[in-house]
Task: structure prediction
Amino acid sequence: MTEGFGVDAVDGDGRVGEFWRGLGLPGLVDVHTHFMPERVMAKVWAYFDAAGPLVGRPWPITYRLEEEQRLAVLRGFGVRAFTAMVYPHKPGMAQWLNGWAADFAARTPDCLRTATFFPEDGAAEYVRAELDGGVRVFKAHVQVGGYDPADGALDAVWGALAEARTPVVIHCGSGPAPGRHTGPEPIARLLARHPRLHLIIAHLGMPEYTEFLDLAERYPGVHLDTTMAFTDFAECTAPFPRAERGRLAALGDRVLFGSDFPNIPYGYAHALEALARLELGDDWLRGVCYGNGARLFAV
Result:
């Protein structure tokens, strides 16, 4: 048993603390973690277990634990701030998820209050209500939601988010499997209309890394999260181009650590060690793993 976790440790878990202490950090900021209503999480796990069409390959869940155990593990890793990434797949679901997420954040002070939306009647109104209520970050999932992020039905939503400068973690790349509206082109159209948006491109836009780096260089509000990128699991199907490492280094103040915890098919330490083996330097790692997220979210 891992001390303080109350659950059997995954191989390598003990190296997480060694990693951030070795960099002289006070801990980690993880911008891409999933906490959801119990029955929704169970359905998500069942989808991964079945290697559904949007997964496309076997995907064992490493940290399949009860909510309190997952929180204990994450805190035991030294994660000082994290998110509760929720996302709807149909109309009428977002507000219910937002209500759950608001309650979760109220009883979990180290969680950045998270909300979501869907292209539906009333979306602009409930997004504004979430902003007024103190939400810290939104989640948009183009692949699962199956919608065009540049759809005019969301124009007022994006306008409110741009005005508030509230970050949106958006899964818009075509990995692990392409969707009807994934890829850089819809995001380019969205940013052309709302250039002040603070978008955090999940998974570095995997596998369209180069095109999403282009957008980050063009728009100062675009950030990138490292979720699953560079790991052995991702590199075998969607390798990050070695030629783009210099651009990633240059954008270092807008690259944020994300893990996808608990829904990852490997230990948490591997995500951090995969970043280190890029050899972009300790200053880059310190920014990615803590400093950039702490600054963006005023942690």
Q: What stands out?
A: The chain has a mean pLDDT of 95. The first strand starts at residue 28 and ends at 30. The chain has 13 helices and nine strands.
